[in-house]
Amino acid sequence: MGIATGQIPMQPRGIWTTYDAFFALTKSPALGMIRARLVADARGGVRGNGQAEPSSMGGGPLLAADGSGTLEISRAGELIASAPVVDGLVQLAGTPREWVGELDEVHPLTLEEAGVSLWDVETAQVSIVNLATVRALSAAAGVDLDPDRFRANVYVEGWEPWAELSVVGKRIRIGDAELEIFAPIERCRATSARPGGSEWDINVPALLGAHVGHGSCGVYARVCIPGDVRPGDTIREVCGEHRHLEGPDSDLISSGTPRAATVLKALPSTEETVSIELVDPYGLLEHARPGQYLRIHGGDAVRGWRNYTISATSPSSVRITIRREADGRFSPWVCGLGADDQVLVSGPYGDAVLSEGTTPIAIATAGIGITPALRIMQHLASTGSSRTVSVMHVARSRDAVPHWGELESAAAALSDCTVTLFLTSEDVVPMGSSVRMGRPGREDFKAQLSGDARRDPDIFVCGPQTFVADVVDVARDAGLDESRIHRDPFYSPPDPMLQRRPVTDPGPFTVRWGGDDKSRWTPASGDLLQLAERSGRRVPSTCRSGICGTCATPVQGDTAYLVEPFAEVPAGCVLLCVAVPTSDLTIEDPHKESQS
């Protein structure tokens, strides 16, 4: 059963309608108290105890052959509404406002015929959740998460945590049925609603993002061969070929989708660093722009995640170069991967990228921060760039610099490129006039960033936070265009915010939607996404928790975040789903839906 909002036209019966057309837990947590079940009349074969089974995907039809029966609505176990079902349709006198007390009036309720998918994804038929994954997430959070939060059709016991993400693109057999696993389930705010309760209590998407680096839990499947599935049935993999990015599921696989990459090879590049070549099953990483990074997710072997800048690409693989931290937990595990191992990855990410043009380029890196310089120089050399390029790198010793020969070869292929290597620990200067001893000072940074008399350079800086801060400070003092400074500091996973902050500035504030149309915001309006929807605007959104970045919208004015965003937010934009105004605002007007 779906409760239509009336804001989005319903498709003809038997055709999938987007979940945005219905009220859902993402917007109304009190809906979690509501239960619906179909009860067949005597002609439908009610069992001797007088109780009918609740409606479920796995059960048989509960209506009589002529489509008659009764729909019962209960709240917290108490029957609050019922009505006869005639020809697969039902009209209820009550409304969700009366049942829950917080929703707007809607059109009469409609019970869709059996077999019609009321999914948020058109091609999905079954959702599968790994119970070991739920337990691992509970342990990481220190909170016991009820698996019912994820509302799966099938719960699996016996897989390692997060192993279900490695099955995406494959076929499995459960009992007599064969299923194709075609996409991870990116979780939304509905999982933050306590099962059987009336409120959001834990920000589950933020928990996923902070602890595992993505927002997915569970997988979508479609039925290839129908059959009976019973509790205790074993699961067998019957086909291991990954799907390509084509067909009806192509928009479900994106750069942020966690997927199982295969290690092509792993070789030491210095005594302290290892270079790993990875094959992306969907080929997304090979198209990374110079300066972008990928993310490795620990899965069952180690908790957490880390970002690694892509240091080289080829038509079929990408390379990352990692410094092994002796007292670390994550880097020793990654550096211990070997050929044919599989690891969960996502990406590419990052907007500190090289753009095409003729402006000068200044690159300043330190330590393992050399990785974006390697990829940028590779690209410049392979495209025969004539841009003026200067590279500065700081390291303890010449032997501690991974792939330095590769960078020098790329520099030699360019018509106007200078490279300077600062060594902070060696006593003897290695051969080459480009090598200097000691740490660079402000004058060295200033010379590096000078560009030419006509144009400010595009500046790329990567290294420890103090190094990045020094370079940026010199660039500002020199009056260089700060919009051309591309920072890539070392990054650590944030702590999750499991609850939203309270609103500190009650306003009221005026929110203008582009032109003259405007709305009045108060704390009762909720976040800016809720305000937009209540004013009849349909904003693209998915997680409603600051994780996916789908609702990023240009905003002029001051805002505050109720939850620290996990997604990267483009300059000048705000994630409407977790933001409130702290001044009058102008928001780029989303498409206004018809109210008919």
From TrEMBL:
Its cofactor is FAD. Residues 509-593 form the 2Fe-2S ferredoxin-type domain. Residues 256-355 form the FAD-binding FR-type domain. CDD domains: fer2, FNR_like. Transmembrane segments: none annotated. Residues 98-238 form the MOSC domain. It comes from the Bacteria. Pfam families: Fer2 (PF00111), MOSC (PF03473), NAD_binding_1 (PF00175). PANTHER family: NADH OXIDOREDUCTASE HCR (PTHR47354), PROTEIN RFBI (PTHR47354:SF5). This is MOSC domain-containing protein. It comes from Nocardioides ginsengisoli.
